[in-house]
Structure formats: C-alpha cells, structure tokens
Amino acid sequence: MVSNALQQLISKIRPTAATAALMLVVVLVLGAGTTQSAQAQTFTVLYDFTGSPDGEYSYAAVVRDTAGNLYGTTYEGGASGYGTVFKVDTSGTETVLHSFSAGTDGSYPFAGVIQDKAGNLYGTTYEGGSSGYGTVFKVDTSGTETILYTFAGGTTDGCNPAGGLLRDKAGNLYGTAGACGASGVGAVFKLSKKGKETVLHSFAGGSSDGAYPAFTTLLMDKKGKLYGVTEDGGTGGVGTVYVLSPRGTVTLLHSFIGGTTDGCYPLGSPAMDKNGTLYGTAEGCGSGSLGIVWKVSKKGTETVLHNFAGGSSDGASPLAGVVLDTKGNLYGDTDAGGGTSGLGTVYELNKKNTLTLLHSFAGSDGSYPFGGVLRTSKGNLYGTTGSGGTYSYGTVWQLTK
Q1: CB 84 within 8 A of CB 99
Q2: Cβ pair 321, 305 in contact under 8 A
C-alpha cells in the first residue's frame, strides 16, 4: 500500500475514478514477470528525516550539483509543518534551506526542484500563496525564498501544481497545474523571467484531450515542443501522452485504454531517446493490474515494455516515470512490491526488456519511493522515500555500482 499521507494527497488532487484505481493497483499479488536477480550494488541511506523542524515525507526526486550535493523538498515538516527545501551534502549532513509557512510563501511542495547555473533552486507548492492555490518559488544560494508566481485558480488560470518545473535556455519556466483552467481539469503554463505567466493550454478532457496533468514534469525537445502525460482523458478515459507545439496545439500521441493489454493513469516524467521515442510508466492496469513501463514512437505507436507483477521479485505501482541511459536501459522506482515487505523497489529495465530489481526497500532503509530516480554519468542512482527510515519520516538514498 502507499503511505497514508500520500493517499490523502492523491485523494485531494484527483477527484476522479483514478483514486479508487490506485487503491486497487497497490494491493500486491504474486506473479511471474521477466525479471532477474539484482546485480552487485551498494545501497546507502544518506539521510534519515527526523520530523519537524526537519523535513517529513519526501515525494520528490532530487537534483545534484557538480560538487555532489543533493537538493529536494519534503511535503511536510519544517519549522511550521508545511514542508521544506533541503540540501544533503556529500558527508550526509542535511540543511533545511527553507521552511514553508502556509502563508504567501506557499505550502506543501510535492514536486522537487531544479537548479540553474548560479545554484538557485526553482519549484512549486501545491497550496499557499496569496490566493491559496499554490506557487512557483525560487530559493537562492543563501536560502532566501522569492515567490515568482501565485496561481489564481478559476477558469483563467491553473491551480494546485503537484509537478516539477522545466527551465529553458532563456530562463523561462514551464510546468503543469493539476486542476482549474478553462474546463477545471488542469493546464500547461509558462512563466517568463520577468514573472509573467501564460496559460499555454487548458485541458478539456473527453476523448480528444487529456485531463489532470498531476505528478508530472514536462519534457522539451530541440524545437521547443513540450511533451507530457495526463492522468485522465483520451479515448480510453484513463490517461494520455501528448505533445504541445510552440503555437499551443495539443496532439494526443497515445490514449491509454487500460485493461490487461495496456496501462492506465500515467504519472511522472517522460524520457526521450535520440530518435524521439518517449518512455514512461502508468501506475495501473496491464496484465498484472499493477502498472506498466511503456514506449511511444514519434508516430504514436505504443509498446508495453514491462507489466509489473508485484510479489517479491517484481515491483508494483510505478508512479514516477523513468530515466534513460546512453545504452537505452531504463531506470525507475515503484511505490510497492519487492522483497518480503512489499515497500517498493528500484529497478533497471534493459534493452531486452528484462527487469532487474536493484533494491527492495525493507522499511528501516525507507519505504514507498514515489519521486523517481536521478542517475549520474557514472551510473549511480539517487532518490528519496516517502516514509520509513529510522524515524519513519523518509530517507535520501544512493545506489552505487
């Protein structure tokens, strides 16, 4: 199962049938999949969150600077209990860079942060700000926070962003809001360096558009096209993969149909190879009803690469997408499955679609990894867990070869 805090957040963000679906897919079942034993890896807990005034419950991936320091967010905790931006250095020392207060500075940062060349961090909060609908924020190297934008909600703006940001070479920020907009089912936005926000697309749902782009970060190609996933909408009503042109035209590349032959409710961030093929995950459905790894070609042809089966030898409920190495291998985490505890996994899916569990969480080292993994050029992986660890508030971990 997922953590109670995560269940509550999902219920708030997704007022749809997807909430019930998540509860179904996280019930583990035993099943046979194309898996193999873990390779020689060294797993290390870099930091255990201790609870307020420290952070609590990190549902986000981390970013890493050139010196090896890691940065991320916790959904709760901090001085006021409304979340933090943190840093973990190479010795495992953690510093809370900013504690959110639930006022105009925002509250509950679900997504992680990105970093510019000067070391400034950018992210979103799910709630807070002057209107209460969430914010886009900046935290500089001294820990000073600046609110770059406060969402207004309603039909003219998005609200409650639960996804991360993308920053282009000019310094413009792009992201998604999981709700509000013209049809009330979310929007894609752009925020200029000067703080001017533009709604690039308001999702309409139905068979021809997506709905609820929650828990997701956009991808931009060299031509400025944006790629993403929505949790609902499309011809099957259970999510889409889409591309948004610089002129604001949305094209659905794939509509998930669910059942046993396809996934349902895609979350996380898509990855793209040099041929323009997209890769990602869907949290539910598939032959084991526990989610899939998928790829979608430039022409929109989808292939299911792996059906998660749960049990001790496979993961279940992949919530964060995948990352891609130069050889075409995929890496990610699952919120459940693996080992004797079923508390989540870190996995590799190679080019032959053989899945290897690199680590199964046991609770003392963390549980319920939600936010996805960071992979370095040396092949080391970093991430967080939503709970577990010494104090049950989650961990920051690394997995080295």
Answers
A1: yes
A2: no
**What is the CA angle 118-322-267, rounded to 5?**
95
Task: Break the chain down into helix, strand, coil percent, rounded to 5.
Answer: 5, 45, 55
- Residue 71's H or E segment, with its range, is strand 70-74
Domain of residue 294, residue span = 4-400
Token code pair at residue 380 = 């080391």
* pLDDT tens for each residue of 286-342: 999 999 999 999 999 999 999 999 999 999 999 999 999 999 999 999 999 999 999
Q: Distance (Å, rounded) from C-alpha 321 to C-alpha 125?
A: 20
Predicted TM-score of the model (pTM): 0.91
Number of domains forming the structure of the chain: 1
The 3-class secondary structure across 347-374, one letter per residue, is EEECCCCCEEEEEECCECCEECCCCCCE
Which two structure tokens, joined as six digits, stand for 340? 């004797």
**End-to-end Cα spacing for the chain:** 29
| Residue among 105, 66, 68, 115 at smallest CA distance from 83 | 105
| Residues 6 or more apart in contact with residue 100 via CB below 8 angstroms | 78, 80, 82, 83, 84, 106, 107, 108, 109, 125, 128
* Contact in structure between 334 and 372 (CB atoms under 8 Å): no
